[in-house]
Design goal:
seven-stranded mixed β-sheet, Quinone Oxidoreductase, Chain A, domain 1, alpha/beta, binds NADP nicotinamide-adenine-dinucleotide phosphate, 31% helix, oxidoreductase, 2 domains, NADPH:quinone reductase
Length: 327
């Protein structure tokens, strides 16, 4: 027997139940991982709430963790029992003491990276990796806008931009979060609860605006984001923290200056094992050399049984950096 989180109906954090289950043996192309630390991601709240419906209910939750391999399926060739591994793109069910994961979604963990660092950074770091180097290639000295810059993805983005020498303008919901984003390497910050995003971006860029906006806040910032873009700029809408962007009239891209818009997802960029190895190596190298520090505040390490509290904190905007569940 093992313990996991499951939910039987979509809803608020209260639908999450901590219960026992009998883990299945891994399929031929899977390994079984005993999770040591589990990543909490905003996307998990979309799955729980029904914004991203699961295939069936009751369902497990979560797609990211790090731990030790305890069993391997008959066709697995690159991973053995005892390996330290991390994953960020499993089928739902990572909020669990053990989870079966496809070999193709497993990254081997370098000795220099702890389970907690890996579980707190893999999905968020792979996201920053494809956003900064594939969706658009950020350049040294390039000024760009990144929303929710003190969050899990945001604090890695600030540090990665800094490592490249790019100038990230980070939006945040409080002055404390502004200090955290600045400390992580944001070039400038905007507190969008009391400052006008577009006016501040115009000031910071001497009226030029920016060529790319990375927007995971969604509904609440969509229009401001478009208004911060230069002619032919790129709007990267990659999340829904304030609700999804819907009903867009494409004419708005013409009116705002022949803009481009994309709605990417990590699974559209990191699909093969090679792509996973490449992205995770880039991330883990930066963590191992101290260029990226993974920020996991002590009060954001929740016991697995308290997954509902972790979701509440995330949705109440009470977190910064990454949150973990500890089995
Ligand atoms: N497309 C992809 O490939 C991909 C992959 C990973 C993550 N994401 C997206 O990236 C975003 C960040 O993910 P994360 O796990 O690192 O979460 P997070 O940034 O740690 O938490 C979300 C943050 O969004 C901000 N926010 C703004 N409006 C909000 C609202 N109405 N309700 C709640 N939060 C609001 C809050 O920061 P402030 O208090 O500073 O406003 C909050 O802390 C999420 O939108 C997620 O869906 C997308």
């Amino acid at each position: 027997m093992a313990k996991h989180i499951k939910f039987s109906a979509a809803g608020g954090p209260e639908v999450l139940q901590y219960c026992e289950f009998v883990p299945a043996d891994p399929a031929p192309d899977e390994v079984q991982v005993e999770n040591k630390a589990i990543g909490v991601n905003y996307i998990d709240t979309y799955v729980r709430s029904g914004l991203y419906p699961t295939a069936s209910l009751p369902s497990g939750l979560g797609m990211e963790a790090a731990g030790v391999v305890t069993q391997v399926g008959s066709q697995v060739t690159s991973i053995k029992v005892g390996d330290r591994v991390a994953y960020a793109q499993s089928a739902v069910g990572a909020y669990s003491e053990v989870h079966n994961v496809k070999e193709s979604k497993i990254a081997l963990l370098p000795d220099a990276i702890s389970f907690e660092q890996a579980a707190a950074s893999l999905l968020k770091g792979l996201t920053v990796y494809y956003l900064f180097f594939q969706t658009h290639q950020i350049q040294k000295d390039e000024i760009f806008l990144f929303h929710a810059a003190a969050g899990g993805v945001g604090s890695i983005a600030c540090q990665w931009a800094n490592a490249v020498g790019a100038k990230l303008i980070g939006t945040v919901g409080s002055d404390d979060k502004a200090s955290q984003a600045k400390a992580a390497g944001a070039w400038q910050t905007i507190n969008y609860n009391r400052e006008n995003i577009v006016e501040r971006v115009l000031e910071m860029t001497d009226g030029e605006k920016v060529g790319v906006v990375y927007d995971s806040v969604g509904k609440a910032t969509w229009l401001d984001s478009l208004n911060c873009l230069k002619r032919r700029g790129l709007m990267v809408s990659f999340g829904n923290a304030s609700g999804p962007v819907t009903g867009v009239d494409l004419g708005i891209l013409n009116q705002k200056g022949s803009l481009f818009v994309t709605r990417p997802a990590v699974n559209g960029y990191i699909t093969t094992r090679e792509e996973l190895n490449e992205g995770s190596k880039a991330l883990f190298d930066l963590i191992a050399t101290g260029k990226i520090k993974i920020n996991i505040p002590e009060n954001q390490k929740f016991p697995l049984s308290e997954a509902a509290a972790a979701h509440q904190a995330l949705e109440n905007r009470a977190t910064h950096g990454s949150s973990l569940l500890i089995p």
